[in-house]
Structures are given as C-alpha cells and as structure tokens.
Design goal:
The complex is a heterotrimer. By secondary structure, chain B is an alpha+beta fold. Chain B contains one helix and five strands, in the order E-E-E-E-E-H. The chains are: A alpha+beta, B alpha+beta, C alpha/beta. The interface between B and C is large, with 35 and 53 residues.
C-alpha cells in the first residue's frame, strides 16, 4: 500500500512523528483524528463523533469478537498490521455464520512512530474495511513514551448479525464422517513475517495470505445448508486449530498428500527446519461439512476469491481420545499435536 | 541434527553465493567449499554451503532403487 | 519439487524397501540411530512402523542440544545476565532448562537474547551495535563447528572486537565409541550421522566396526535413505557380516570436506567436555585455540557459574544412550511436556522425548 503521497501529508501539526501530545486528548489529538482517522474511515456513524457509535442492528443474536495485533514488522510482503487487524476480525465474525458489520479500533502508539506510517496503516485499514463491507465506527488512540510499546499495537473488535435464515455454526455440529476442507495453501503468512527478520530473508519475498474471507464464507453458507463448522487456522497453524476443535469422541484424520503447500513455502520451511502445519495463516478457513455436501462446497469455494486452491484434506473420525492424526505419504498414521512453544527455526 | 538442504548455486560474488532451493533464493557463505561453480548443487546448513552434491552418485542411487527394489 | 530431496521420498520405493526389510530380518536386532535429525525423520515419517517387529530402533546422543550439560546451560544464562551482553543462539536452545532458568526466562526478564539462523548474522549485528558484546553460543557437531570457525576467522579479518564464541561444540567419534563400548550396550549396528560425515568423511567409523564388530551405515535423512540404510544393516546382520557402508554417497565423500576440516581445526582444538547423561568424554569437545583467544567467551568473560543441579527424576541420560525409552520415564507426558520440560530431550526439536510426544510412539 505504500506509494507516493502528496507533499505536506506526512505530518500532523507539522510533526513528522507521533508525540505524547497526540494521545493526550487535546488539540493535537483532535487534529490527528481528523487528519488521519476520520479522513480515511469516512462514514456517517463515525462522523457523528459520539462517545459511542450508535448502530442499527436487526433483532436476535449478534456475533461479537475482539483481537489485538502486535505483528513485527509492521509492514510485510502482502500486508501490514492494519490489513491484518481488519481481516482478522472480519474473518472471526464470518466463521460463526454472521455477516460482519461494524468494527472498532484502538491504537496504542509508541512516541516517535512516523506519521507517514500511521497514515499508510489507516489507509490500508480503510481499504480493506470497504472491501469487506464493514464500517469502522468508533476508535481510540493512546500514545505511550518511547520504549513502552513496540511501534504500534492495534485492537479491533467487531460485531456481526445473522441473516434471517442463518444458522450459528458451532463446534457441537461437527459429526463423525464430516469432511475437512481448507481454502488454500498453508504457512504463507507466518513465513512472510519471519522472513523479514534479519538472517531469515529470502530474495523473492513470500507474501502473506492475509485476506477478508467473508465473501467466500457467505457464498458457501448460501449454497450449502448443512455446513457443520468453520474456523480460521491462525496462530499455531492448521495443526493447532484442528487440535482446538477436536474433543472426546471426535478426532481428525488428515491426508498428507492432499494438504496444499505453496512451492516457496515448502522450500523455505525445509531451509529453516520448520513444519508448515504449525505456521500461521491469515487468509484461510477450515470448512467442515457432511460428506454429501463436500463436492458442492468445494465448487463454491474454488469459484470464490481467495478459495481457488481449496482442497479436502481429511475427515472427522470417531477417535475416542479426540486426536488429530495424519496419514503420511508412506501410508503410516501418526499423531499431530498442537504447537507447544513457538516454532523456532533450527539448525539441528 | 545438522539440518541441511540441497540448493543450486545461481551466481557467486566473492565468498557468497545466491543459492536457490526450488523457487526460494538465499545468500549463502562459501567459506567452506573449494572451487564452487555456478550450476553446482550444494548442501546449505546454517547459512553456509558445507558440501557439494555429487549428482552422478545421486542419479545412480535413485535409479538403483527404482531398478532393483521396484521390479523384482 | 525440491531436487535431491523429493525423489528420496518416493512412496513406491519406500514400500518396496519396507517389504524387503521385513522379509530379511528374522532375528531380533538393535540399531542405534545416533543423530537427532534421523530420530525426527524416523518418527515424522513413521518409519519405525514400517520395519517389522524384529528391528528395535534406539535413539542415541546425536542431539547437540540434548547433550549440552546443565552446567553449560547455566554458563550461558550467567553470561545473559551481564548487562551489555547479547546472547545469540540457534532456536533450539531457547527453552532448554538449566538449574533454575532458561534463555526464554532470561529474555522475559529483560535479557538481550536473539535467535539467529547463522553465526555469520552475529558478525553483522556486532558491526551494527559496537557498544554491545555479542556472544554466539556455538553448539552442534562437526557439521556446524566449521561454520562457527569460519565466523571467527571472518571476525579476525573484520577486526571485530565485540564478537565472541562460546565453544560448546562436540565431536562424534569418541561418543559413539563410548556408546558401543559400555557393558550394558546391546547395540548391534549404528546408523551414522549423514551431515557430520559430509565434513569428516567415512573413516571415523572404521575403528568402531573393527574394534567392536558393529556395522556402521552412514545415512541421509529422507525416508528412502533411512529405509535403505536399515535394509542394508538388516541384511548384514542376517548374513552375520560386519561392515562400514556409505549410504549417502551423493553428499558424503570418503575423505569428507578437507577445506572445512582445515578451517575447523585452524580455530578449534580437541578438548574434554561433559555430555549430559553420559559424563566427561575426553577429547570429544572443541576448544578455541590460543591464537583466537580474544574471541573465546570462556576466557574473555569472568563470570560465576553457580553449582549446577541435575533434576534427580530426569532420565534423559539413559534415553540418550539408548538404555531406556521415553515411555520408561515416570515424568514423560505428565510432569515433563514440551510446555514444561524437565530435561533437554523434551525441549529440543530433535530430542527423543520431544519426537515421541509430538508424533506418538
């Protein structure tokens, strides 16, 4: 999203960097909000500038989520902390079966953070909010002294509503025999971020897969009426997420050969001694459907933006211990546990 | 131990090479290799090339397994 | 397709080899797979399930993190606690418990601990931050030690005065000999480390074959490599023959990598060192020669290392020497898990207990 900016826009109050004054609630804060947040997040709810956003919601259930984003570096191939903060929250709402509607964003900014970077991040958030069909209706900004935060942290909370005919997707809907579908290649995001760290760089960057998936999810829910469950495999990767959804009497058996991994991700993982099963994704969903709906679900996903590489990768088993297992390409079945500690590139 | 991956030398600049492992290119130090050349395959370990891959032997090994063990 | 890797994962070849192994091995047979990388590959690919009931695979001490003594871990932690020191390490060491702390704990307390992919990166850091002292924790066997040596030589060329190496590298031959020589050893054959051998060559295993009549087969890390190695060893065993075989010819030459060995011994010389769970093995460590003493973190930093205390219930030592399996340990999977490890075998990405926990038995 970085590009040429008109002269004079890299400052607020003629300051190139965020200062404590920008977070103190006075004139400088007001200027910051107008110059950046209100300018790019334009909508009539936000423009009311109330202490709270007052929104119209239909009666019945709402989906409500929150997430905080502390990614480092703040800008990485394929995205930035702003894009992550919008897409992450949009996706968390969408996987429950709800339509994402309204987002709040709270910023904690380290004194000295470049205004130009903040502007880029907010522009990115505005872009992806519009693309996702959500409105950023309220927010907050705090500035802390240098060294008390690492550049910028963002929290987004989001609210979604259920269509009249919509079901709420819950874990308890998962049944033995259900098929497990992934919407595309795994491991892209985690490697994109790691590869920005000194010593881990690759020449042609691996791009994050960060993306808003609510469009694809809505298409699936419109076209398939018995989807059991959905979740996005973020931190800890596919393996960890699958371990989170199993339980006594319900396990998972994956087929190694079917799991899509991009060529560069496979190579980079080999070089660093990492396992893509445990690497974070930010633009993928797991969709669990009864076997009769597998074909239809795949067709819809593959025709959707961000879902062209969708594959069935396994099925739900009646495993007593609720284990996640994988049948390797050699036909041997072994367990996949969840990530225990941060996966660290190894030499050994 | 000693996690290493074979990669192809794309070009050499003094003591460093750009090495490609199936679509991913990394800078690798050549301090431990004698007379490296472009197009050669090397084992990459901890940022260094540690040995050259003997492509003849590699080809022989796989053909051997395919021939001897697959068609008895 | 990763060349020289994917073809060695060919399912058809693996299934054929698996059948051959089961057909040829009629008698009970113990193979020690020395190298932690082999342990991981075996467990990840489920190779132990493909070789029949008669072959017992035992893990060995070839996991450099696992065999780093608790005293050495405590030394690293003591260095980390000195203000102005930056500890640079491979990721494997981060969570290994010392007597009362780990590098992860020290980082949480404000220590400057950085994970690196290569010793070379530490040199760059040192150049960028001249006010700090950068200490690279040099672990690993003969595969990795030359890379550390090369970084010391480069530091000399750059006249870097804030780069140090903590020499914790170990060498294989004496340790292998120790494994085989022990009275309680029931090792019939060894799978020898593939990448160590690319540096050392094949000759280092010959004394073990000749003196102890134990077959040694050098192996690569992919399923085809390991299955063919196990087949070769099983076949020798059935014929009651003993031999040294290089089954990783695409990467291992008989005389190894002369240039790497030269660089290794330009900077390092053999020293005594303690292997966790085994004890002192004379001449099996690598110390920095006097010529490069100014880069030696042991000589250049005067720190107190408190008396180190092993966890009395941890049996990592017996697991590393193949005497016991993780399932024999009372702590395995209960008090000792990857989240709360009591010993190095559970923490290290290549530790036997870690592999068993992650991939199942």
């Amino acid at each position: 999203m970085k590009g040429p900016v008109p002269p004079g826009t890299n400052t607020v109050n003629n300051m190139e960097n965020i200062t404590i004054a920008h977070g103190s609630g006075g004139k400088a804060t007001d200027q910051l909000i107008r110059d950046i947040f209100f300018k790019y997040f334009k909508n009539n709810i936000l423009d009311e500038a109330g202490d709270s956003a007052v929104c119209d919601l239909t009666g019945g259930k709402i989906a409500f989520t929150t997430d905080s984003f502390v990614v480092k570096p703040v800008f990485f191939p394929g995205g930035d902390i702003g894009k992550l903060s919008i897409c992450g929250t949009v996706n968390d709402i969408a996987v429950t079966g709800a339509i994402p509607r309204y987002i709040s964003c709270g910023f904690i900014i380290e004194e000295g953070f470049p205004v130009s970077d903040l502007r880029e991040i907010v522009k990115s958030m505005a872009f992806w909010a519009e693309k996702s069909g959500v409105m950023v209706v309220t927010g907050d900004t705090k500035v802390v002294e240098k060294g008390e935060a690492d550049e910028i942290f963002i929290n987004t909370s989001g609210v979604g509503t259920f269509p009249d005919t919509g079901r709420v997707l819950r874990k308890r809907n998962i049944s033995r025999g259900d098929k497990v579908i992934i919407s595309g290649t795994i491991g892209d995001h985690g490697l994109a971020v790691l590869s920005q760290r000194k010593g881990f760089e690759f020449e042609r960057s691996i791009c994050s897969d960060c993306a808003p998936l609510n469009g694809m999810i809505a298409s699936v829910l419109e076209g398939v009426d018995d989807v059991s469950f959905m979740r996005d495999p973020t931190r800890g990767g596919l393996a960890t997420t699958l371990n989170e959804i199993t339980g006594p009497g319900l396990g998972v058996l994956l087929d190694e050969v079917k799991i899509p991994v991009a060529r560069e991700v496979k190579s980079a993982s080999e070089l660093l001694g990492l396992d893509p099963l445990y690497i974070a994704n930010e633009g993928k969903i797991l969709v669990i459907v009864p076997p009769g709906s597998e074909r239809r679900t795949l067709d819809i996903m593959r025709r959707s933006e961000y879902g062209e590489n969708s594959e069935t990768i396994g099925e739900i088993t009646g495993d007593d211990a609720g284990k996640v297992c994988i049948r390797t390409r050699l036909g041997v079945t072994r367990i996949i546990d969840m990530l225990m500690t941060e996966q660290l590139p190894r030499i050994c | 131990m000693c996690w290493s991956v074979p990669g192809k030398i794309l070009d050499i600049d003094n003591n460093t090479a750009r090495v490609e492992v199936s679509g991913v290119i990394k800078k690798v130090a050549l301090d431990l290799i004698s007379e490296p050349s472009v197009g050669e395959y090397v084992l990459v370990h901890a940022g260094y090339a540690i040995q050259k891959i003997d492509r003849e032997k590699a080809r022989f090994t796989i053909d051997f397994f395919r021939g001897k063990f697959s068609h008895d | 397709m990763i060349e020289y890797v994917d073809e060695y994962r060919d399912e058809e070849i693996c299934m054929d080899l698996s059948g051959k192994i089961r057909a040829v091995s009629r008698r009970r047979f113990n193979i020690m797979e020395v190298c932690g990388g082999h342990t991981m590959s075996i467990r990840k690919n489920g190779i132990q399930k493909l070789i029949g009931e008669n072959i017992n695979l035992m893990s060995g001490p070839g996991c450099p993190v696992c065999v780093t003594s608790i005293n050495d871990i405590d030394r690293i932690i003591a260095l980390a606690r000195v203000k102005g020191n930056v500890i640079c390490t491979f990721g494997d060491l981060f969570y290994v418990p010392g007597t009362d702390s780990s590098l992860a704990d020290e980082k949480a307390r404000g220590g400057d601990i950085r994970m690196v992919y290569s010793a070379h990166d530490v040199l760059d850091f040192a150049g960028e931050e001249p006010e700090k002292k950068f200490i690279f924790v040099s672990i690993g066997f003969e595969t990795t030690a030359p890379t550390s040596a090369a970084s010391v030589i480069e530091a000399g060329k750059r006249e870097t005065d804030n780069f140090y190496l903590l020499p914790l590298n170990k060498t294989m031959p004496a340790a292998l000999r120790e494994m085989v020589r022990r009275k309680d050893s029931n090792i019939d054959a060894l799978i020898c480390p593939g990448h160590v051998s690319t540096i050392t060559g094949t000759g280092i295993y010959r004394p073990i074959v000749e003196d102890f009549k134990v077959s040694c087969c050098i192996s690569g890390f992919e399923p085809v490599d390991l299955l063919s190695t196990i087949y070769l060893l099983a076949d020798l065993h059935e014929k009651e023959e003993v031999s040294l075989i290089n089954n990783y010819k695409r990467a291992v030459r008989e005389d190894g990598n002369g240039k790497a060995l030269h660089i290794l011994y330009e900077v390092f010389e053999p020293s005594d060192t303690v292997w966790r769970g085994i004890g002192n093995i004379p001449g099996s460590g690598l110390g920095i020669r006097d010529k490069y003493a100014r880069f030696d973190a042991v000589k250049m930093f005067d720190i107190d290392v408190p008396v180190s205390v092993e966890d009395p219930d941890c049996i990592c030592g017996e697991i590393l020497t193949g005497v016991k399996k993780p399932s024999d340990c009372a702590l395995f999977g209960t008090a000792c898990t990857p989240v709360n490890p009591r010993g190095a075998c559970m923490v290290s990405s290549e530790g036997t207990c870690s592999a068993w926990y992650k991939y199942g038995e």
